[in-house]
Amino acid sequence: GAVVSQHPSRVICKSGTSVKIECRSLDFQATTMFWYRQFPKQSLMLMATSNEGSKATYEQGVEKDKFLINHASLTLSTLTVTSAHPEDSSFYICSARRAASSYNEQFFGPGTRLTVL
Amino acid sequence: LAKTTQPISMDSYEGQEVNITCSHNNIATNDYITWYQQFPSQGPRFIIQGYKTKVTNEVASLFIPADRKSSTLSLPRVSLSDTAVYYCLVGDTDKLIFGTGTRLQVFP
Protein backbone atom coordinates (compact mmCIF):
# COMPACT_ATOMS: atom_id res chain seq x y z
CA GLY A 1 0.00 0.00 0.00
CA ALA A 2 0.86 3.72 -0.01
CA VAL A 3 1.90 4.01 -3.63
CA VAL A 4 2.43 7.35 -5.29
CA SER A 5 2.72 7.66 -9.05
CA GLN A 6 3.90 10.47 -11.27
CA HIS A 7 3.22 11.12 -14.89
CA PRO A 8 5.07 11.57 -17.10
CA SER A 9 8.29 9.95 -15.92
CA ARG A 10 10.30 12.10 -18.27
CA VAL A 11 9.51 14.94 -20.59
CA ILE A 12 11.48 17.00 -23.07
CA CYS A 13 10.07 20.31 -24.17
CA LYS A 14 11.06 23.44 -26.00
CA SER A 15 11.86 26.62 -24.19
CA GLY A 16 8.76 28.75 -23.62
CA THR A 17 6.28 25.90 -23.42
CA SER A 18 4.38 24.76 -20.35
CA VAL A 19 4.60 21.31 -18.87
CA LYS A 20 2.16 19.64 -16.50
CA ILE A 21 3.24 16.90 -14.11
CA GLU A 22 0.70 14.77 -12.29
CA CYS A 23 1.10 13.20 -8.88
CA ARG A 24 -1.38 10.58 -7.73
CA SER A 25 -1.78 8.63 -4.54
CA LEU A 26 -3.03 5.28 -5.83
CA ASP A 27 -4.32 3.52 -2.77
CA PHE A 28 -4.81 6.16 -0.14
CA GLN A 29 -6.14 9.65 0.29
CA ALA A 30 -3.65 12.42 0.69
CA THR A 31 -4.83 15.65 2.19
CA THR A 32 -1.35 17.06 1.77
CA MET A 33 1.07 16.63 -1.10
CA PHE A 34 4.49 18.14 -1.53
CA TRP A 35 6.58 19.06 -4.54
CA TYR A 36 10.35 18.90 -4.57
CA ARG A 37 13.02 19.68 -7.10
CA GLN A 38 16.37 17.96 -7.27
CA PHE A 39 19.35 18.96 -9.38
CA PRO A 40 22.07 16.42 -10.22
CA LYS A 41 24.17 15.33 -7.25
CA GLN A 42 22.18 17.61 -4.96
CA SER A 43 19.61 17.08 -2.29
CA LEU A 44 15.86 17.50 -2.63
CA MET A 45 14.58 21.04 -2.29
CA LEU A 46 11.03 21.55 -1.11
CA MET A 47 9.17 23.81 -3.52
CA ALA A 48 5.65 23.88 -2.14
CA THR A 49 3.07 22.25 0.04
CA SER A 50 -0.22 21.43 -1.58
CA ASN A 51 -3.41 21.01 0.43
CA GLU A 52 -6.56 19.63 -1.14
CA GLY A 53 -9.04 22.33 -1.89
CA SER A 54 -6.82 25.24 -0.96
CA LYS A 55 -3.98 27.27 -2.39
CA ALA A 56 -0.51 25.85 -2.24
CA THR A 57 2.07 27.25 0.11
CA TYR A 58 5.33 28.03 -1.65
CA GLU A 59 8.78 28.03 -0.14
CA GLN A 60 10.83 31.18 -0.20
CA GLY A 61 12.36 31.82 -3.58
CA VAL A 62 9.91 29.64 -5.53
CA GLU A 63 7.83 31.63 -8.00
CA LYS A 64 4.19 30.70 -7.59
CA ASP A 65 3.28 32.12 -11.00
CA LYS A 66 5.86 29.96 -12.67
CA PHE A 67 5.17 26.74 -10.79
CA LEU A 68 1.40 26.38 -10.67
CA ILE A 69 0.13 23.78 -8.26
CA ASN A 70 -3.38 22.42 -8.15
CA HIS A 71 -4.64 19.88 -5.63
CA ALA A 72 -8.14 19.28 -6.85
CA SER A 73 -8.82 15.97 -5.17
CA LEU A 74 -7.56 13.82 -2.33
CA THR A 75 -5.58 11.68 -4.77
CA LEU A 76 -4.27 14.12 -7.35
CA SER A 77 -1.98 17.11 -7.37
CA THR A 78 -0.52 18.71 -10.46
CA LEU A 79 2.52 20.90 -11.00
CA THR A 80 2.62 23.05 -14.11
CA VAL A 81 5.91 24.59 -15.09
CA THR A 82 4.89 27.60 -17.12
CA SER A 83 7.06 29.08 -19.85
CA ALA A 84 9.79 26.60 -19.11
CA HIS A 85 13.41 27.54 -19.68
CA PRO A 86 16.57 25.42 -19.70
CA GLU A 87 17.32 26.38 -16.08
CA ASP A 88 14.05 24.67 -15.09
CA SER A 89 15.47 21.35 -16.24
CA SER A 90 15.51 19.18 -13.16
CA PHE A 91 14.10 16.11 -11.45
CA TYR A 92 10.71 16.90 -9.95
CA ILE A 93 9.45 14.66 -7.18
CA CYS A 94 6.14 14.70 -5.39
CA SER A 95 5.21 13.13 -2.10
CA ALA A 96 2.00 12.52 -0.25
CA ARG A 97 1.21 12.21 3.41
CA ARG A 98 -1.39 9.63 4.25
CA ALA A 99 -3.89 10.81 6.79
CA ALA A 100 -3.04 8.05 9.24
CA SER A 101 0.73 8.34 8.84
CA SER A 102 3.03 9.20 11.65
CA TYR A 103 4.95 12.42 11.56
CA ASN A 104 7.30 12.91 8.64
CA GLU A 105 6.26 9.69 6.91
CA GLN A 106 5.71 10.78 3.40
CA PHE A 107 5.42 8.51 0.39
CA PHE A 108 7.31 9.68 -2.62
CA GLY A 109 6.60 9.33 -6.28
CA PRO A 110 9.20 8.02 -8.72
CA GLY A 111 9.98 11.48 -10.02
CA THR A 112 9.70 13.27 -13.36
CA ARG A 113 12.77 14.30 -15.26
CA LEU A 114 12.18 17.53 -17.14
CA THR A 115 14.54 18.62 -19.87
CA VAL A 116 13.96 21.99 -21.46
CA LEU A 117 15.77 22.56 -24.74
CA LEU B 1 13.17 22.59 12.03
CA ALA B 2 16.34 21.10 13.44
CA LYS B 3 19.38 21.12 11.18
CA THR B 4 21.13 17.83 10.61
CA THR B 5 24.72 16.96 9.86
CA GLN B 6 25.79 13.70 8.22
CA PRO B 7 28.97 12.43 6.59
CA ILE B 8 29.00 13.25 2.91
CA SER B 9 29.98 9.74 1.89
CA MET B 10 30.82 6.30 3.20
CA ASP B 11 32.26 3.18 1.64
CA SER B 12 31.62 -0.38 2.68
CA TYR B 13 31.90 -3.93 1.43
CA GLU B 14 29.20 -6.46 0.95
CA GLY B 15 28.25 -8.31 4.10
CA GLN B 16 29.45 -5.61 6.47
CA GLU B 17 27.33 -3.68 8.92
CA VAL B 18 27.11 0.00 8.12
CA ASN B 19 26.37 2.67 10.69
CA ILE B 20 25.55 6.18 9.54
CA THR B 21 25.43 8.80 12.25
CA CYS B 22 23.46 12.00 12.07
CA SER B 23 23.92 14.98 14.39
CA HIS B 24 20.94 17.12 15.31
CA ASN B 25 22.00 19.21 18.28
CA ASN B 26 18.99 21.50 18.15
CA ILE B 27 16.33 18.81 18.12
CA ALA B 28 13.10 19.91 19.78
CA THR B 29 11.00 17.96 22.22
CA ASN B 30 8.32 17.15 19.65
CA ASP B 31 10.71 16.22 16.85
CA TYR B 32 10.89 12.75 15.38
CA ILE B 33 13.91 11.36 13.53
CA THR B 34 13.28 9.84 10.13
CA TRP B 35 15.59 8.24 7.62
CA TYR B 36 15.03 7.96 3.90
CA GLN B 37 16.92 6.11 1.17
CA GLN B 38 17.21 7.38 -2.38
CA PHE B 39 18.49 5.58 -5.46
CA PRO B 40 19.54 7.57 -8.54
CA SER B 41 16.61 8.96 -10.52
CA GLN B 42 14.07 7.68 -8.02
CA GLY B 43 12.05 9.24 -5.24
CA PRO B 44 13.18 8.72 -1.65
CA ARG B 45 11.94 5.69 0.22
CA PHE B 46 11.05 5.71 3.91
CA ILE B 47 13.36 3.49 5.93
CA ILE B 48 12.70 4.02 9.59
CA GLN B 49 11.50 6.54 12.14
CA GLY B 50 12.04 6.93 15.86
CA TYR B 51 11.73 9.24 18.80
CA LYS B 52 14.06 7.74 21.38
CA THR B 53 16.00 4.60 22.30
CA LYS B 54 16.05 1.93 19.62
CA VAL B 55 13.75 1.09 16.77
CA THR B 56 14.16 -1.91 14.51
CA ASN B 57 12.33 -3.05 11.42
CA GLU B 58 13.00 -5.55 8.67
CA VAL B 59 15.39 -3.21 6.93
CA ALA B 60 17.36 -1.32 9.55
CA SER B 61 17.80 -0.28 13.14
CA LEU B 62 17.79 3.23 14.51
CA PHE B 63 19.68 4.04 17.67
CA ILE B 64 18.89 7.26 19.51
CA PRO B 65 20.77 8.19 22.70
CA ALA B 66 19.01 9.68 25.68
CA ASP B 67 19.89 13.27 24.79
CA ARG B 68 18.55 12.74 21.24
CA LYS B 69 21.21 15.03 19.81
CA SER B 70 22.30 12.37 17.39
CA SER B 71 21.03 9.17 15.84
CA THR B 72 22.60 6.22 14.08
CA LEU B 73 21.10 4.28 11.24
CA SER B 74 22.39 0.73 11.20
CA LEU B 75 22.19 -1.41 8.08
CA PRO B 76 23.06 -5.04 8.81
CA ARG B 77 25.06 -6.95 6.21
CA VAL B 78 24.81 -4.53 3.32
CA SER B 79 24.65 -5.67 -0.27
CA LEU B 80 25.45 -3.93 -3.53
CA SER B 81 21.81 -2.90 -3.81
CA ASP B 82 22.16 -0.79 -0.67
CA THR B 83 24.31 1.67 -2.59
CA ALA B 84 22.26 4.85 -2.32
CA VAL B 85 21.99 8.19 -0.62
CA TYR B 86 20.64 8.12 2.93
CA TYR B 87 18.95 11.16 4.40
CA CYS B 88 18.37 11.92 8.06
CA LEU B 89 15.49 14.28 8.78
CA VAL B 90 14.27 15.77 12.02
CA GLY B 91 11.01 17.55 12.64
CA ASP B 92 7.48 17.38 13.98
CA THR B 93 5.55 18.66 11.02
CA ASP B 94 4.76 17.50 7.55
CA LYS B 95 7.42 19.68 6.03
CA LEU B 96 10.54 17.67 5.24
CA ILE B 97 13.76 19.59 4.79
CA PHE B 98 16.40 17.37 3.26
CA GLY B 99 20.05 17.88 4.13
CA THR B 100 22.95 16.78 2.01
CA GLY B 101 22.54 13.10 2.86
CA THR B 102 25.20 10.38 3.02
CA ARG B 103 26.22 8.70 -0.18
CA LEU B 104 26.88 5.05 0.66
CA GLN B 105 28.89 3.04 -1.81
CA VAL B 106 28.97 -0.73 -1.30
CA PHE B 107 31.76 -2.65 -3.02
CA PRO B 108 31.81 -6.36 -3.83
What's the overall geometry of chain A?
Answer: globular
| Oligomerization category of the chains in this entry | heterodimer
Number of helices of chain A: 0
Task: Give the C-alpha Rg of chain B.
Answer: 13 Å
Q: Give the beta-strand count of chain B.
A: 9
**What value does the Rg of chain A take, in angstroms?**
13 Å
Major β-sheet strand ordering of chain B = 1-9-8-3-4
Mean pLDDT of chain A: 91
The greatest interface here is: A-B, 26 and 24 residues
In terms of structural class, how would the helical and strand content of chain A be classed? mainly beta
How do the SSEs of chain B run, as a string of H and E?
Answer: EEEEEEEEE
Percentage of residues in helical conformation of chain B: under 10%
Largest sheet of chain A, in brief, is: 7 strands, mixed
Helical stretch tally of chain B: 0
- C-alpha termini separation of chain A: 37 Å
Beta-strand level of the residues of chain A, as a percent range? over 45%
Structural class of chain B: mainly beta
Indicate the low-confidence ranges of chain B by residue numbers.
Answer: none
Main sheet summary of chain B: 5 strands, mixed
- Residue-averaged pLDDT of chain B, rounded? 93
**Low-confidence parts of chain A:** none
